Predict the 3D structure of the following.
Amino acid sequence: MKNLDVLMLRYNPLHTGAERDIVPYLSGEKARDPGIVAFKTAYFGNTLVPDLPPALGKDLPAVPDRYRFALSNPWIDVVLTGPENRLQIEQALQALERGPLSPHEYAEMKRFGELLAVPGQATQSVNLSGKHELLQR
């Protein structure tokens, strides 16, 4: 990773592959590691999920908490937002004001992502050798 300046990757509770595919290769020293830019942090696919599994409750996590999920990782340097209106700007700012999730909140968000993931749905992963792999959840 020493030849990279910046990595941009999707990261949210449904897409945590960077924890497996990228983080193990980071040194943990900001001066040596590339900057990590996370995008689609508030994205949960179709957020109008008609029937959430009972274990999840009735609502998706609030958008500010989805941003806070990414901001809770010390290896993420920038979280991109794509606000389309004033409410979405306020949600992003609220995430900054509230700061990182507590360990309990973070664990609950990870659990939510795992429960909401569609079993058997293929996700694409790129390993550092440049090969693309299809992974099954």
